[in-house]
Automatic annotation (TrEMBL):
The keyword ATP-binding applies. Residues 394-516 form the Mur ligase C-terminal domain. One of its GO terms (molecular function) is UDP-N-acetylmuramoyl-tripeptide-D-alanyl-D-alanine ligase activity. Residues 179-371 form the Mur ligase central domain. This is UDP-N-acetylmuramoyl-tripeptide--D-alanyl-D-alanine ligase. It comes from the Bacteria. Its EC number is 6.3.2.10. Keywords: ATP-binding, Ligase, Membrane, Nucleotide-binding, Transmembrane, Transmembrane helix. It is an enzyme of class 6 (ligase). Pfam families: Mur_ligase_C, Mur_ligase_M. The chain crosses the membrane at residues 50-83, 104-121. InterPro entries: Mur-like_cat_sf, Mur_ligase_C, Mur_ligase_C_dom_sf, Mur_ligase_cen, MurCDEF_CellWall_CoF430Synth.
Length: 526
């Protein structure tokens, strides 16, 4: 009986320890169960966890005491190896132990404890089957805990939402600017904040807080009666997500930075992406203003309500689409960019400078300019506003490493538009070898192969050496490089990000330039 109890205790403890990784992955998928479960099922057991199965068999199938004791030792060893690997390969983004996560873990532990107690009254072969199933499929506990807790989470969230709505109602003069897009929304949000903070008291959603709960936290924790403007980044993975956010914070101004094939794993079709991003313009407040990036065909084709004012902008000085604002005489260098802003209606021009790199960033700056002018900022004041703009960390920011070589850090989230622009910056950057390290682009649905292959073709034209992370996920990039007859001796396929950087340290030399394009979350490790 004692061995039986110890064995069940080991099963419960090991499974619960594994639940910490399970809930972390669930959090990384934004608590979307339909995204989490397919990935969770892919890897049930790692090779070393065969020790666990051996331990279960020895403890509950054999009747020989020394073998049973050896089985307990095997279970203990499995736990030791698990913790050793977790420590050796720490997560890039740590789990945030929010109240929701703590509640899920508590419910999971209660489920395990109740099951273990019931198992004490069953024969050993039943426990063996239970042990063989529950540990590899520990993620099922997170599914059950999330399902059980859903009514509680709903009540808690509704309380927070209502409290946020109360705070918004106490600031009736607050101007809300909604920012969405497949790419560039965080950069545009930061551009807007930097520019507008010079003349207004501005609050923006921090980092990538772009869900309803992220907006709720921002409002409840930071909104003050003195704030004049709230810049709300709006993310979406499913149809209706942007409408929900518009219903919540009621934006007066809206800007869609871009529409592209992002999150197709959840949107399923590109038409759904267009529909969802367009919800921002559709659900603006009466007499609101839509800032339309007419360089993006999908954005300029969005039909606006009659009571919504349109402000159109373009970074293309050759366009025939009559934007309200456009730029000309653009110069992009290693230290930043300069351009001439043109106001179409008046013909006024102004030479502006920014430390931001890449043409796609100029589109973000132009959006910020158009919104600033609509809010009453003077034309002449724009020079001061744009000069202070600096790159957001991991979004095409630069840094020198030991005064030896330069890193172009575009690791946050690669996309088809931004990756091409980053390669353009790399190609024109002064330096010796041009090196790229990338795991490719993700969440592109059935377009993933074609877009990553196109990325590989572009890499071949811009880089002297290529480090690809992950053999399977970079196969399309490899095909693109092969199509351009890129020399195989200048390609290294790394097994992990760590392996990729080890190779980089071997080959990098004085005054080389290294582009880090994307950094996959732990959920995409091969």
């Amino acid at each position: 009986m004692l061995l039986k109890a110890l064995g069940l205790l080991m099963i419960t403890g090991l499974t619960f320890i594994k639940n910490f990784s399970d809930v972390h992955k669930f959090q990384q998928y934004g608590y979307y169960m339909n995204q989490y479960l397919p990935k969770a099922r892919q890897k049930l057991l790692k090779p070393y966890e065969l020790i666990y199965l051996l331990g279960i068999i020895l403890v509950f199938v054999t009747d020989v005491l020394p073998l049973q004791i050896f089985g307990l030792a095997a279970l203990t060893l499995n736990g030791y190896f698990y913790l050793l690997i977790v420590k050796a390969y720490p997560a890039k983004k740590k789990c945030v132990y929010t109240p929701r996560v703590k509640r899920m873990l508590t419910t999971s532990l209660i489920l395990l404890a109740i099951t273990a107690f019931g198992m004490m009254f069953l024969p050993n072969w039943s426990i063996a089957i239970y042990g063989v199933v529950i540990y590899p499929m520990s993620f099922v506990l997170i599914y059950l805990a999330n399902t059980i807790n859903k009514p509680i989470e709903g009540m808690v969230n509704n309380y927070y939402y209502k409290d946020a709505l109360r705070l918004l109602s106490e600031n009736p003069n607050l101007t809300v600017i909604g920012v969405t897009g497949s790419y560039g929304k965080t950069s545009t949000k930061n551009v807007l904040y930097t520019m507008l903070s010079k003349d207004f008291n501005v609050l923006m959603t921090p980092e990538s807080f772009n869900t309803k709960m992220g907006l709720t936290r921002t409002i409840r924790e930071h909104l003050k009666p003195t704030h004049q403007i709230l810049i709300a980044e709006m993310g979406a993975k499913e149809v209706g997500d942007i409408k929900e956010l518009c219903d919540f914070v009621k934006p007066h101004y809206g800007v869609i930075t871009s529409i592209g094939p992002q999150h197709l794993d959840t949107f399923k079709t590109f038409e759904n992406v267009i529909l969802t991003k367009g919800e921002l313009f559709k659900y603006l407040q009466p007499n609101g203003t839509a800032f339309v990036n007419i360089d993006d065909e999908n954005i300029r084709n969005i039909k606006l309500r009659d009571d919504v004012t349109s402000v159109r902008y373009s970074v293309n000085d050759q366009t025939t689409l009559t934007p309200d604002y456009y730029i000309e005489a653009t110069s992009i260098g290693a230290s930043g960019s300069s351009f001439t802003l043109v106001q179409n209606k008046t013909g006024k021009k102004l030479r502006l400078n920014t430390k931001l790199l890449g043409r796609h960033n100029l589109s973000n700056v132009l959006a910020g300019i158009a919104i600033s002018l609509s809010l009453g900022v003077s034309f002449e004041r724009l020079g001061t506003m744009t000069a202070d703009l600096t790159p957001v960390k991991h979004r095409l920011s630069t840094r020198r490493v030991n005064d030896q070589y330069t890193i172009l850090d575009d690791a946050f989230n690669s996309n088809p538009v931004g990756s091409k622009m980053a390669l353009e910056v790399l190609k024109n950057f002064e330096g010796n070898k041009k090196i790229v390290i990338t795991p490719g682009m993700i969440e592109l649905g059935d377009q993933a192969y074609d877009l990553n292959k196109s990325f590989g073709i572009a890499i071949a034209d811009a880089c002297d050496y290529v480090i690809l992370v992950g053999k399977k996920q970079t196969a399309p990039i490899q095909d693109g490089l092969a199509e351009k007859a890129y020399p195989s001796q200048r390609i290294y396929i790394a097994s992990s990000i760590k392996d990729g950087f080890n190779k980089l340290h071997e080959i990098v030399a004085l005054n080389d330039v290294v582009l880090i394009e994307n950094d996959l979350p732990d959920t995409f490790n091969e």
